[in-house]
Write a structure and sequence with these properties.
Four copies of one chain form a homotetramer.
Chain A (H helix, E strand, L loop, with lengths): L11 H15 L4 H4 L15 E19 L3 E9 L5 H14 L3 E12 L2 E3 L3 H13 L1 H9 L6 E10 L2 E9 L6 H19 L2 E4 L12 H6 L2 E11 H8 L3 H18 L9 H12 L6 H4 L3 E7 L2 E11 L11 H9 L8 H36 L1
Parallel strand pairs in A: 1-3
Antiparallel strand pairs in A: 1-2, 3-6, 3-8, 4-6, 4-7, 5-6, 8-10, 9-10
Helix pairs in contact in A: 3-8, 3-13, 5-6, 9-13, 10-13
């Protein structure tokens, strides 16, 4: 193993030396990875063992009209992907939504969670600890507060099983996605609990948080921001732009998302929400592993008097506009495109995520319904 | 809306013009996004409305010794992330594994699925269609084969509910991830079924596939490659490198992944498998939305005579070494680093994914267990 | 503790003595429990420590017309319950179905499962064991066959995680529900595997069976009999008998079973299938704990040209017409009422279960939809 | 169809006439069903179309020592089943628990839920309705209160998806299981919401309740009573009575309940909790269909200094000691056996359920572990 592989520096020279060591070690030349155009120090807090960057193609969809509480107006939205046809499809959905007067998108809950797990002596001890927590929520809040200026402990929900005691702690985390903040605060909370109750902290994350695992507790209670988005598409708009009737789109959604997802024992029921979330998260410096819980979206379609009503519920939009990858050069530009860089912008970003997911769902369901129609036309012509 | 936003071209000039239109439209300058260093034509099949790239920091972990059927030897593995501390953590896991003689990693099943949904008249009709499919599997296979030279229809599993009929079609797809191949073949299969049975195709994807949604059917039956990886870490190695005992790591895994994930009603039970998968997928041009099903990993730890046995089961490793984003300049370099670019390499890549996930799991569980120990030490010192 | 509590006999005198001991021990008189009207020896294989019986009210629903493969004609069906209004409701559903020409009900799959779990050395050993099983399925079949004249091993599906290896064994079990048969055969199969592969049996049931636990693997793959039942109710019949329109019933099913169950992260999506299954199982001597997996029913409603199409899919109808509680005096009479006592009747019983569940679903969904209508009428009148 | 089938009366004469009509209609004689020993009028509110009873064998387990908050002392517990060996097995578990000083069993939460679903205009309307509910919880409480003297509305948790709005209403319901009470109160609450917000009630049960369907929301939030029970069994007791070591039982629980249930995508992870719950519910006049959610039990085993620690968490113990089937002659005797008939006894009954489930789990896991030991012994002897 070449010495350079052990280089711990973060300057461009360090990155270059390390990459050369990798090239030597693997026998592979890495000119494109090495052609990063920003100073690696900008990523010093984002990665270790850096050797360059991977350039992911970035495009846009829109203009997309959104009538949100925080996101209001027409947006040109950046998305990063390597899956051909995705942006074209989402873009059609944006076009339909905008032609329909825009999508509503609202944040209805906002809390980041961390759930430490403790070893307790037995069930009675668990009950005691839960009682202590309930009586001392103010002390826990203080302990959390001492670790952060932006976060605030909202609630503490206990779960007890045998000698394991879990406490799902919910925080408001300002404009940060908030995992780190919540983790640090939860450690402080946990140490206080240890000291006062005799419970022993086993892990600051007991998997009832739930971070980056698909879990029903998150789809039920939400994590990060719960976002609702919807639109009513006039029949004429749908037929002209998507060549599908409201009836056909509603049927597709019914058989595919309604019944199909239930049979598959899915968490959430949608067409391909993860696609839009992944492309938005990569573009804007969010954590792409949180696409996992982000994907548990429920999509509904109904025929209404004047056309098609379509909606999405996103139970776990975990986004930030400060911290994490948001300050990286390309990512901050992408956030700026939608006016979402920095303080006070996280709810706006979440609403945009909701509206873009709606656009993607609408487009894909309509395309599949149109395929059906197309076939129907063919069969009529036989 | 500026005219440039409607530019459909894919040359560098087109991309530049389009980006300028976006800059004008949003009032935001995009120099970093625009500083892509490869010819946009290389991404012509990967994205529409391209305006540049997002540069995601890329680092490496390793050397990681893997004793797989396809991946054998020491690997320096590329990972792309914006989450600080992730690579450092995974790297520690790699170090532990390598010092323990390497990780076993094997592919035990390999099939990509697509599940069209049809409208049928009623339950009896569904039974008839299922019967026809069973009797005519060879004709379906021919219909599929006519659309692809690399794919092969392996099986067709029917699910019937009321007037909805689903057919989960499984394909071998060579070294491609295979979704497109499977989709095109499934359309051909579906049209034959329509013609012969009177069932009407509603959607080529009826959500029993299941693509990019967390669903139990996938964790049970697998999608893409099912990978098993494991390692036995000698006690001395674990204590020296991770400052944790086998007992403490096993307890952390038990309370967190075993019980915690069950209480949370999770699909899979692991520490943070999605992190490793996302970082590997972005680095190597895989579809990051497939991290969703990739995340349903089961991680186990047991104390054994000579130390800690740790394992992961990945039910849905959906990767390719040809097609998709694998031919993009940075991504193909990343694949080359691990000798996984091109034909004949997909199983090898899947085994590397398994081993890296194992490394990340081992590291995080050990760190949490060590925190526990650390605290124990502190409390002893009080 | 009175001596009588230890009485192990099974005669009426034994039962009486034991009950008197319980009366003495608890200070409670048990005349009704003691007034059982059959010879306790008839229950010798059904219970231990018997002190009498609990009399559960038994009624009937019907006549219910069923157009099944095995159940064909009009049936008067016994149901046992203590929940007032249940039978009246199911009876209305029967009336609607019969007036609509009857319900289709068919068995589309039939296999009882048992899944032993073994300890193996590691993942590679698991792969070896799985390979051995695949190559020696005929020997496993012989080993199973040696334990039973009615059962037959159909297939063996392996699942491996770390040092745990599971084998989901599927059996045809004739007219018995088949759990005991499957368990005994699986022990024989397991011993052979132990002997030949070095895997160590940890439990003959590794919870991938899955008996009496709600689990997605069962709803996906089925356990016992998968039954589909459906009916098309003419609009006039629905409106006259249920005071509800097809549109209102379909909407109720959509919002309640379709979306509501998905949000609740339910396995299955129905109104109250468990009610019908429990009442039928108790009446006919089935295992009431298997209502658990029986409850994972999918109910669908659609408006069709001529009225309402309603269907149910029951993935786990685990019933027998021989063995278990079927030979008890009251239970065998109940089975006789529907011509389902003894050999060759299990599929018929399963079809009746399907049709009765359909009746109950139809009735409850209609009643709720009518409530909605009723309210609408009231509000119109304001 | 004979006229008697339409007989609506509830006297013994009515029941007899009806049964004769059924006998005539089916051609089957029903002497045992007809030999019920109590006056059918006692069941007038429990069933319709009554023709007799089904006698289910009733036995007991115990004495079982319980150290609960409400159940304290030694209990002889009635169970009704037709599954041979069940009571013998549970009885062994009781013996082990009692010899270990008894089981702790405590109720940690108590609330019955009903979740009506409303049609709303769109997401914004849903948000408005949710806001109105939050601001007017006192009015909702009054509306609920007007319908019941025993129930009290505790909280109202909103869930919104598109044009569907769900409100999970939680009630304390005294000693009744409380479904009817909750349903009636929820209708009153719903009508007030309809009047004030323009939301339209679609069903008083929107399947987020969740009654008689296995659903993660219930295992996470609980329904009815959440009960924790545990025991520490000294090594000598376990080995003497169960012929198993703590290590073997813990391993069986780990591979079967821990990993097996996770792989099966189960809700809950236990050996056979449903068996005990079903047998207790049938004996004591509870609703046997609620075994479904009752079954989502988590069982844990750990080796501790002095032996084996075993625990169960029951998230949904839905029991009453007044109302429903509790006043039927045999059932009220069964309740009396454990001092649980009437007012003030529901928590006690729930604790007994917890302890008996623990006994059954302990026994089955030990038996399977002993099987393993047995085999080990045999192999040692080879």
């Amino acid at each position: 193993m070449g010495e350079g592989l052990k280089n711990r520096g973060r300057s461009r020279a360090d990155v270059d030396e390390r990459r050369r060591a990798v090239e030597e070690s693997t026998g592979v030349s890495l000119p494109n990875i090495g052609s990063m155009t920003f100073d690696p120090l900008a990523a010093a807090k984002n990665i270790e063992n850096m050797i360059g960057t991977v350039q992911v193609p970035l495009g846009f969809v829109g203009p997309l009209r959104i009538n949100g509480d925080h996101a209001a107006g027409e947006f040109v939205v950046p998305m990063a992907t390597t899956e051909g046809a995705l942006l074209a499809s989402v873009n059609r959905g944006c076009s339909v939504i905008t032609a329909s007067g825009g999508a509503t998108s609202v944040v209805v809950k906002d809390a980041m969670t961390r759930a430490p797990v403790f070893r307790v002596r037995d069930s009675r001890h668990a009950v005691e600890v839960a009682g202590w927590v309930e009586r001392n929520i103010d002390r826990l809040r203080e302990a959390a507060q001492a670790t952060t200026s932006h976060g605030r402990l909202l609630s503490a929900q206990p779960f007890a099983v045998g000698r394991s005691f879990y406490l799902r702690l919910s925080y408001s985390t300002g404009d940060a996605m908030g995992m780190n903040m919540a983790t640090i605060a939860s450690e402080a909370v946990s140490r206080l609990i240890e000291k006062e109750t005799g419970a022993v902290l086993v892990s600051v994350s007991g998997n009832l948080c739930v971070d980056k695992k698909p879990a029903a507790i998150n789809s039920v209670l939400g994590r990060g921001k719960i976002v609702l988005a919807d639109v009513t598409v006039p029949r004429a708009v749908l037929e002209e732009k998507m060549h599908a009737t409201p009836e056909a789109v509603a049927e597709t959604c019914f058989r595919k998302c309604g019944i199909g997802s239930s049979l598959a024992a899915s968490l959430g029921s949608n067409a391909h929400a993860a696609n839009m979330i992944a492309a938005l998260y990569i573009a804007t410096g969010q954590d792409p592993a949180q696409v996992v819980e982000g994907s548990m979206v429920t999509t509904t379609c109904e025929v209404v008097d004047d056309g098609l009503y379509a909606s999405v519920r996103l139970p776990c939009v975990e986004v930030g506009t400060v911290g994490g990858g948001t300050r990286l050069p390309c990512q901050s530009e992408a956030l700026s495109m939608i006016g979402c860089l920095g303080e006070g912008k996280a709810p706006k970003l979440a609403e945009i995520v909701g509206a873009v997911v709606l656009a993607g769902e609408l487009s894909t369901l309509s395309a599949q319904a149109a395929g059906q129609l197309g076939q129907a036309h063919k069969s009529l012509g036989r």
